[in-house]
């Protein structure tokens, strides 16, 4: 099998190169460009492509890939809302993903964001570098004995529940499916979670039901001085409503690893560009907001797990014994 890796970063190549010798018969070529209508044609001569969470796998791109002979799309991530599934089905293209790699990596980043924005670590760091040791404007909140509200208790959400419990917090959760392993968690309706939580962290997938689950109505139901964190999908939050809530002093602090309209920014150095949208700059203009660049997954352990599962997916396709749990349908 020949695989063309799109949107390859240094850390991707390093992690995959470590394990490739174990997979005889699989050849890999890396390109920095992401897959798009303009680059999909370069997949001709390959059996599969490997893409990531921000890759353009729309209907037209899928058609070009199919014409190029691609039969397999390997997603080195869990998310697949960027793929036209109907087009893949029409052209007989199989999609395999990495449903879980290191839930603790994402949960730990969510907690890091919660702590950093709460205690204004970003502002304190910059001040001290300029020999400004003033504490004005850096007042935070104790998480101990406060209430954490976790929306979505899959593997990542469950890991976040355990972290919050370890901080001595009462943990509320909202999910259609309750996790029986979380015996210390109280499952409640969404309205109750919004009303009672001091920290709200989003860990649910993006679906029609969860699109803009955080909006003007849900924000009004929250406590004043609430801390909001999102490491899941940007479109879970209506950004305009969030910005309005920040301006109205509803939030003590906000930590975002994902946000709407992030696609062109993710993993790219755009410091010399004029950005197409003002969302990022508007969010960064607030002293109580921290935005990171979709990096919650980025640990050595997670990269190793992603590499291993992706190559196992490729091997299972070759052997005709596809790993059922990793198929996107």
How does the SSE layout of this entry go?
Blueprint: E1 2-5, H1 10-19, E2 27-30, E3 48-51, H2 59-67, E4 72-75, H3 85-90, E5 94-96, H4 103-118, H5 121-129, E6 147-151, H6 155-166, E7 170-174, E8 186-187, H7 190-196, E9 199-202, H8 216-221, E10 226-230, H9 239-247, E11 251-256, H10 279-284, E12 289-291, H11 300-319
Parallel strand pairs: 1-2, 1-3, 3-4, 4-5, 6-7, 6-9, 7-8, 9-10, 10-11, 11-12
Helix pairs in contact: 1-11, 4-6
Compute the separation of the termini in Å. Answer: 22 Å
Which structural category do the helix and sheet elements fall into? Answer: alpha/beta
Residue share in helix: 25-40%
Average pLDDT works out at 95
Short description, anyone?
The chain is an alpha/beta fold. The chain has helices at residues 10-19, 59-67, 85-90, 103-118, 121-129, 155-166, 190-196, 216-221, 239-247, 279-284, 300-319; strands at residues 2-5, 27-30, 48-51, 72-75, 94-96, 147-151, 170-174, 186-187, 199-202, 226-230, 251-256, 289-291. Helix 1 (10-19) packs across helix 11 (300-319) and helix 4 (103-118) packs across helix 6 (155-166).
